[in-house]
What we know:
Elements: H1 14-24, E1 52-57, E2 60-61, E3 85-88, E4 95-96, H2 118-126, E5 132-133, E6 136-139, H3 146-163, E7 168-172
Amino acid sequence: MTTFAADHDVPIPYMQRTRDYYLKLGFDNPYRWAHFADVPFAPLAKPLAQSRLALITTAAPYQPGRGDQGPGAKYNAAAKFYEVYSDSTDSVPDLRISHVGYDRKHTTAEDPGSWFPLARLQDAVKAGRIGALTPRFHGSPTNRSIRVTVERDAPELLRRCREDAADVAIIVPT
């Protein structure tokens, strides 16, 4: 017999909440996600256990002197970044997410593994579930411009992933 979920057990309307949040932050128009009618699908060329994985994040490097950036910090535009960056996957750097508009009422930023899973990916490599990580992870700006993302940031991220000989990339937005 199939059991229905309780009436209150519904998906969180994340997209509408984000649009409302950006309006409350003072932007004059709601956030608009880039989405396309046709999205190409490319199956893995080899098993993940034999692949080199690139991690792409929207988390920002911690910037002392730029205000509160810790877990639960209010939105902090001073901590934003506007250029693609890269850093080593050898260790887990101090990244923060106070620069993005996430639902701070229902979510905390106390577990960096939920928005920057580098340590878990390192564990997956050790366990043989992933062949290897690329030598660098890459940071993707969240600057609200679909044009800049498509014309500048995405091609730069692709260039860096190819330079690192990535077979597959995982994008973890915050």
